[in-house]
């Protein structure tokens, strides 16, 4: 067929429009364009009542397949939220779940906390509207804090939001690093040592104030690498900041990475070790429904940008433990704004990383 100038113009325009509509999930290398498949979950949890925010994973040493996922439901400004307990298939254990908390944002878990002369595992969450953190014994989720530990006392900016727990390898002491909805540019976090008082109630003592903030948006996500002794936190519109986590350390910032290529807020952080110093740091790119994967060692170079099934993910958690036949290399759990958490076999994520 002979093509006139009008036909050529139409065809050229069509090709330009087609090129402009290529999905951002496509990546290119020297030889080809490659479509990146969205990573789909193995299980999606039952929905909570109002607004999911952050998950944590409790590993059951005696029966790994009976491990639990603890997830927060923030509620709303007029309604109580809670801590929901899920099995690894996403089903809610309503007997263990707690639904009377005032704006619980983030939650984390620590093992071998000394309590009543024994060692127990604990889940700790922030309760923003009460200016407190809450401590629960696992797996029962029984409160052991006499109603809550007040935080940021004496400071007008005292509404807690983010939290991460640190277990000191040398002596097993456990610390809670607590962030807030609003804070100063220096000393955004207060670090509390968790202990028992004479009434066997868990209490917290301030041992450190640290953390830099840009003054833009906020900081919510905090993650601790116990093994290497670092704390990471997402300055949401700037990057991921890194400092030493030991309370006796200097407050010098060690790194600021993840400054580029984010579509929106830098949110949930989770750490997946593959060796003593190797592994991955996964950070949610909230607006793009992606997780950016950084190298755990060295300069935290960007390894991959992976699209996930979650929507506007805020919080996440990962574990490299063997959870049984379905999850022999660990699991990754991420919040989604449809009131659920998505549960992934780590092997899927590893394959996606390897294919990049």
Automatic annotation (TrEMBL):
Residues 29-353 form the BPP domain. Pfam families: Phytase (PF02333). Gene3D superfamilies: TolB, C-terminal domain (2.120.10.30). PROSITE patterns: BP_PHYTASE, PROKAR_LIPOPROTEIN. It comes from the Bacteria. GO terms for molecular function: inositol hexakisphosphate 3-phosphatase activity. This is Phytase. It comes from Marivirga atlantica.
